Amino acid sequence: MEESYKRAGLALPRRTLLKGAGAAGLSTALGAPFINRLYAMEAHPLAGKKIDMNILGIAGWLPSSLGVKMSPLFADYVKQRYGYDVTFGFAEAPFSDLFQKAATSLATKSQEYNIIISDSQWLGALAKPGWILKLNDIIAKNKGLQLDWYSQTVIDTYMAYPDGTKDVWGLPQEGDTKALYVRKDLVQDPKEQAAFMAKYNMKLPSTFEDYENLNADDYEKVMEFFTRPEKGLWGAAWQYSRVYDFCTCPLFSAMWSSGGEIWDAKTGQIEGVLNTDANAAVMERYKSWLKYMPPGATNYGIAEEIDVFTQGKVATCLQWAAVGLAMINAENKDKVMVVPPPKFGKGAEAKRIYCMGGQPWVINAFNDDAKMRVAIDFMNWWYLPETAKEYAKRGGNPCDKATLSSSEFDDVNPWNRAYKFMLEPGRSRDFWHDPKYSEMLSLQQEGFTSFMTGQSKSARGVLDYIACGQQQILYDAGTAKKEPSGVCGNVSL
Questions:
Q1: What angle do CA 89, 50, 392 make, to 5 degrees?
Q2: Which UniProt keyword terms apply here (predicted)?
Q3: Quick check: helix, strand or coil at residue 489?
Q4: How far is CA 137 from the centre of its chain?
Q5: What average pLDDT does the segment 419-426 reach?
Q6: CATH number for the domain that contains residue 266
Q7: Distance of CA 134 to CAs 23, 128, 290, 374, 482, Å?
Q8: Segments forming the whole domain that contains residue 276
Q9: What is the pTM of this model?
Q10: With contact defined as beta carbons under 8 Å apart, do 388 and 398 qualify?
């Protein structure tokens, strides 16, 4: 990057550029269009042409809209550097419908969507039929895509399929981890702190470091302490809804953090791994936390959590870092802190392993040469240091080590420190990149929410039902080596 500045006759090293971004990100004076003009015009096969592109993203999901809203900056960049014009059209669908929208189009080898913002778990389902472009050769030919990612978790979540291989099918559009949003005005109130000490004989957690060391037992005390229905206040909001993966993500997080597993990714074995007494105990505990949450919490997903938190109805909320701009608004911005979610277990044995969120960019494998070239140019532009900083300034979560390790990053957004903390190795993980993800998730959400709403009484029975059904799905697909055991013939919700 410094070489490009030298060619333009400007002594503006990257360190200076990062300092110029400050806590508010890139200033107007150093905005992306200005930086783009530092590049000299280069020969390009599309020079003088106009290309129309289309991106498919997630409706109502801020990180997707941030990505597409920045496309005019890319258009300005390629016009000045490469001499071609590009315009972008956008299509969107909710999380629950987006995969089907993409798959229906790609199955016909259509160029309807040239670039897609995919959920991370869809990599297998999109890659196996050959619908999206394998990126290994593209990365090898483009130094701008040979990034040092913040942790292996980034590669495992947004890029690699099959798991554990070096086959790359996606590049991170939005990094995302779970975080705990906490009412700072409550936990740092001296009167609340004194009352908490008197009741529990422990300090009310009130700093990032306090929550970094907090286990679930002590977090439950925080939830209990702030549950005051008569005052319209409850201790927490977590997700329990049957929609998409809303109940699954916190449950998997609690299972992993408690020492449980959900499957053997190498063999596809689920029966006997997911359905254990230990995982059933986690389900029972998670259900018991409903007493600290507002009425109707079994229907809580992302939007419902945003509503109750911004309305001041809950003291804490487990939510995605990616929706920080919605969780922290003009009214509550001085009242909120974002910290790591609790560990499970006690002492040195306590663990914190939460579900990854976020989405990768994937490229339509059926793009013609011109659209493919624009898509690759777009990826190269997206991972420029100045683009990453601009994205962070607007509320997005980049994944490259250079951006996240800069001295300014933690202060750009209130959730950045917690996001980066949870992106460290071993603190977050993704699940199921398998092509049968959608079928497995639907079955699982049915079972989990059946127990949370009281329709099914036995947590272990629900896990047996899920494990047997998922084992059958993967056995039929040839992923699991063993068919479901004879016990599975007698399970039901």
A1: 50
A2: Periplasm
A3: helix
A4: 26
A5: 98
A6: 3.40.190.10
A7: 37, 10, 44, 16, 30
A8: 177-356
A9: 0.91
A10: yes
DSSP string, 375-415: HHHHHHHHTSHHHHHHHHHTT----BHHHHHSTTHHHHSTT
Say how far apart CA 330 and CA 293 lie, in whole Å.
25
pLDDT digits (tens, 9 = 90+) for 447-456: 999 999 999 9
Interatomic CA distance for residues 351 and 87, integer angstroms? 47
Residues in contact with 351: Cβ distance below 8 Å, sequence separation at least 6, in sequence order: 256, 257, 258, 259, 343, 344, 345
Burial of 140 (0-12, 13-18, 19+ CB in 10 A): exposed
Q: What is the dihedral of CA 246, 252, 255, 259, to 10 degrees?
A: -160
Domain boundary among 408, 429, 450: 429
Sign of CA dihedral 390, 395, 400, 404: positive
Contacts 24+ apart (CB under 8 A), 219-222: 219/316, 219/342, 220/289, 220/292, 221/196, 222/187, 222/196, 222/315, 222/316
Residue linked to tokens 């013609």: 368
pLDDT at 236 over 50: yes
In order of 165, 204, 235, 354, the CA distances from 344 in angstroms are: 30, 18, 18, 11
pLDDT at 38 (0 to 100): 53
Report the amino acid identity of residue 216: A
**Which of the listed residues 327, 356, 385 is the one where a domain comes to its end?**
356
Assess whether 198 and 119 both reside in one domain: no
